[in-house]
Amino acid sequence: GYNQAVKENKSLYNLLQELRGNIRVFCRIRPLINSESISSIEHVGNDGSIMVCDPLKPQTTRKIFQFNKIFGPTTTQDEVYKETQSLIRSVMDGYNVCIFAYGQTGSGKTHTMCGPSGGLSSQDLGISYMALNDLFKTSTSREDVKTSSNGLLNLPDAKKCPVQSPSDVINLMLLGEKHRASSPTAMNHRSSRSHSILTVHVNGKDMSGNVTRSSLHLVDLAGSERVDRSEATGDRLKEAQHINKSLSCLGDVITALAQKNSHIPYRNSKLTQLLQSSLGGNAKTLMFAHISPEADSYVETLSTLKFAQRASCVELGTAHANKESNEIRELKEQVENLKRALAAKE
Ligand code: ADP
Ligand code: MG
């Protein structure tokens, strides 16, 4: 009885989310590390539910959250990617896809997106590498990346570079990582106070030969912790507040979307402008909510779970593949041929 109910609950929840086209939320719990011993995670159900409590007063603080999936501390990178792969396939079918990692510093965002050392040297490569690998595997053309100006964003230091393989992209990302504002805060030496965003534009053909155009955003967000926890001061504090501002703008946008407000404040930060089409438009969006299980992180864990819960209420509407039918393409080709013929005559 119970197992059946759990199964039904799971499929109903996922089905409803699927029908509504909601932001999908996967929660990932990293293992306890080093001296950490007491966990604030009380129970993880195989139905996507999770129960947390303040280990100091468990009786009165128990809270349950429900997501599309929970990855426990023993989940491997491969298992995580397997659950993500269908989204990567839909990029090839012409859907815009956005995958973003949220959570406090040290909760495993970079581990999920890139891998343990954030690089190629490791076995446990993350989603970005696996996704690029899949995209390159199916691609037939190795056309150099074309430069185009992004009308929406003014990123003066942005550069476009041609790539031939997943490792080219990862090496570029490592270079970016070096330039990324990060410094040892009290929380984690690999802490990052900036966002890392990798966008892949894909031109493809679907099964019926229709031309598809889509984009894939892979986003490793800055740590979501409150500033006072990382004991940042001076310039770092200013930067942290700025980062927290863009994350809180993201929070405002998600709240406004979840409440179906008529005004959605996308323009308040570059991050939300960049993610606008993925959060409110024609896209399939997946959020990884990362939590650190140790007792000390309880407050941040709770805040991440609440944020994630709000995100899972956001309905994106049905995403459409960006395709051009064969008919339209043929007509366009005819027009081009006629133009050429006309030009040749003149
Ligand atoms: P974040 O990017 O959120 O600051 P990291 O990805 O750097 O966090 O992870 C913090 C530490 O925890 C790193 O040493 C990382 O290797 C380790 N870690 C994170 N997630 C996992 C996991 N699922 N399995 C094993 N180790 C992990
Ligand atoms: Mg990181």
Which terms would index this structure?
346 residues, alpha/beta, seven-stranded mixed β-sheet, three-stranded antiparallel β-sheet, 11 helices, 10 strands, globular, binds adenosine-5'-diphosphate, binds magnesium ion
Mean pLDDT: 80
Helical content band: 25-40%
- Which consecutive residue ranges, at least 5 long each, have pLDDT under 50? 145-152, 185-191
Count of β-strands = 10
Which structural class should the secondary elements be placed in?
alpha/beta
Nearest-angstrom radius of gyration?
A: 22 Å
> From the structure provided, what is the oligomeric state, counting identical versus distinct chains?
single chain
Biggest β-sheet: count, sense, barrel?
7 strands, mixed
Which of globular, elongated, flat, extended, rod-shaped describes the shape?
globular
Count, helices: 11
What is the H-and-E element order?
HEEEHEEHHEHHHEEHHEHEH
**Beta-strand level of the residues, as a percent range?**
15-25%
Instruction: Provide the list of bound ligands, each named once.
Output: adenosine-5'-diphosphate, magnesium ion
The end-to-end distance, rounded to whole angstroms, is: 80 Å
Coiled coil: 321-346
Organism: Oryza barthii
Protein name: Kinesin-like protein
Domain Kinesin motor: 22-314
Q: How is this structure best summarized?
A:
40% of the residues lie in helices and 17% in strands. The protein has 346 residues and is of the alpha/beta class.
